[in-house]
Amino acid sequence: MLQLPSFRGAKVLTGKSNLHRTVSSLSVLEVSNADYSSRIVNSVQEEWYAEEMVISSFYSIKDSIEKQCEAVEYLYGLGEVGLILYYVGIIIPEVAEEVLQFAESKNFIIICMPENDFSLRYNEVIYEVMEAIVLNNQTFNDNFVNEALEKVSLLPEHSRSVEITLKFLSDRLKANIILTNTHMEIMNQVMWPRNSSLDVAHLIDVYAPYLLNGVKGQAESNCDCYVEYKSVHQKNGEVLYLFLIKENSKLPAKTIDKISEVVQVAINLWGDKHNEVSEYALVKAIINDESDKMRRLAHLLHIDVASIQMMWLVFIQDLSKEKQIREELEEYLFKYYKTAVIQTVDHCIIALMGNCSYKYNEYEIAAEYIDTTNSASLISEMVYAPRMRNTQDVRRMYRLVNSVGRKVHLIYEHRKLYTAAEMRSMKQAIDMSSQGEEVLEEWLAVIDPILGDPDSLKTLMTFLLDAKGNYDACGKMLFVHKNTVKYRIKKISELIGYDVTVNSEFYDVCIACMIYRLIHS
């Protein structure tokens, strides 16, 4: 892409080690802030934009370096390859060092178009890049299967799924892709374009009897729509049907063969028991963003996923004890919740709940469980995540917790129960700790007056992180009287200039303490 004439004079500012990435689409981002754009994207359908470049000038956020960093973080979180930045020197005077450091920490590509150039036009890059992409997509070379699977395998582990593979193939083919079981019940459905109102279920009902009997001509009787199918097999030998529906043009037979081969391998890799109807399959569909499969399973299992408002993630150390822990957890939760789906994915028991039966404080329900469970020694950590508005919130929180991973134990040394808010704070601290010396120095400056005093540091971190601001708990952890803790905290607050007993002031200090533990653990 960088060799195209429209990029002459452009500079790669960050992510230079990532220039091997493939680009298959362009998008323009010129909205007031990333949050608004995020709502637009997620209101349609959550996607993983693994091969897309974004064009922007940061016009609407030109005066806020913080919002520019947020925009980069938002784009990175979507899986975007990078950002093509226009009109530097005209709209923004220069690309801020904070933005460059943050992008580089994520290996996120920022390409700066020639600076101070009023003659630049978006359409030149859009035309040349999209022309190159269209020409490339017209050919399915012999290595297409390996390339397609490699692109999906490079995604984060939680994003590798059959549905993500189908989305990638649909974008490449500009066609609708549907996966059904032998009863013609739709398991996965990816539309092209995504907002298409084409009734693919009706088309399958009409054409499937002819297609499955080998009467190919029937699939072409509608001149506006061409329906093709291939059978694929799961590891257990069960058959699934892959339907390819393209409007206005027919797919070549060789292309159909290659697409079905990609789907076959994807099912073998990421679609174990793909047509299984179970709560486990439902939970997997939710966290893997397999929306159609999730809705189908929820309907078949008579589970109202819309009522899910609470999630617990219980990480266990010994899978041989998983059944024991899960049964105990089920017995406990069904005392409080009418809706509860509890399944184990890897080393994590995922509990999704709704319709709390009694007027209990839901955090106290979680705290009581971790304090009273017979399996406490087998649980490494537990995350309490309330206010799950929809399955997208469930998926995002699951991914957030997994992105924090074992670093939770570097920040919180003596606890097992964490809230969703604490997870978000930890993620911020982890991101900040990887942004270079300048950012680290800025954050550690918050607690700089006590950095040379180990006792004050230990008291502050124990008070804020481990004891959650409780004097009694902190005193017990430090083996001193609570009044001693009060005296120390008062002195520390005076030294650093933040009253850490006041909610509006301790947040920055808390983040600084997390960063300190991360880099000194």
TrEMBL record:
Q: Where is the PucR C-terminal helix-turn-helix domain?
A: 457-514
Domain Purine catabolism PurC-like: where?
2-133
Q: Which branch of life, at top level?
A: Bacteria
One Pfam short name: PucR
What name does UniProt use for this protein?
PucR family transcriptional regulator
